[in-house]
Structures are given as C-alpha cells and as structure tokens.
Amino acid sequence: MTLNGPQGSHLYLISELPDYGSYDRKVRFLGCVENYDIATGIIAIGHAYPPNRPNVLAKVDVNGILGTLQRNTTQVGAWVRVMGYIQQADAPSTQTNTRDPPTVQVAAIILSAASPFPVEVYEKAMRERLELLEIGKSMLANTKQDNNNDINR
Fold this sequence. Notes:
Helices cover about 25% and strands about 30% of the residues. The protein contains 2 helices and 6 strands. Helix 1 links the parallel strand 1 (about 10) and strand 2 (about 25-35). The radius of gyration is 18 Å and the shape is elongated.
C-alpha cells in the first residue's frame, strides 16, 4: 500500500542543518530572531547550541508566508518555530569571511512564535536526542561490522 501525502519534516538544531539537511528537505527548528530585512523578506535566525559546534545562521525566506506573519515573530530576540525547505547550505570552508557563521537558506512554510519556555529544557531534550542518535549510529556500525565478519568466515 502506497501512501501519498506531504513530505514529513525532520527536527534539527540549527547547527545541524548543514550536516543533516539535504536540499529541498523539509525541516523544523527553533531559534532566536537576530535580524529581519524587510526589503528582502529574510529573517536571520540563530541558536548557538550545542557549544561544541560552530554557530550556524538560518536565513529564512518568509516572502511566501508574509500574509501569515505576526509582528512578534519578526522582532529581534523573539524565539520562533520554523518549518520549511532547505534551499542552500554553506559549509564552513566555503565562507568568504571567516568571521561570518555558515548559513543555511530556508524557504519557510510556517513561522510562528514559540510559546514561552525554558530554553534549557529544549536544549536538554535536543542533547538527549543527539546522544540517542550517536548510540544508534554506533549500534548500526557494530551490526555492519558483525555482518562483514560473518561474510568473511
């Protein structure tokens, strides 16, 4: 049975988008508005977490959803939830100005205010998610190694 419908979205930290996000992949993330350029319809959103990863700036194109934007979602310092499609991601090595963080361009389909919440709780949940992903990758690598050992016997 084949199910047709909209593509599911994937939850990421902004800092993960260049690594895990493929172009035209639907993503969700949470971040803080750093700048809104009214002339271009681009909102710069950041979240410097986790501290051991390079800071990444999401440049979110909101031109397609201007009619649904609320004033509080475009103000510097506002925490927002974004769902959209990755359009382009710059690897850190391709940056022309090394002081500028890598950027990911996202075409928004939804941008809404994040309800008041403790950022620490969100970061803890995302840290646990990252730890589970690492455990899963390790288990998968071990399974592949075991399968290769079985084949070579």
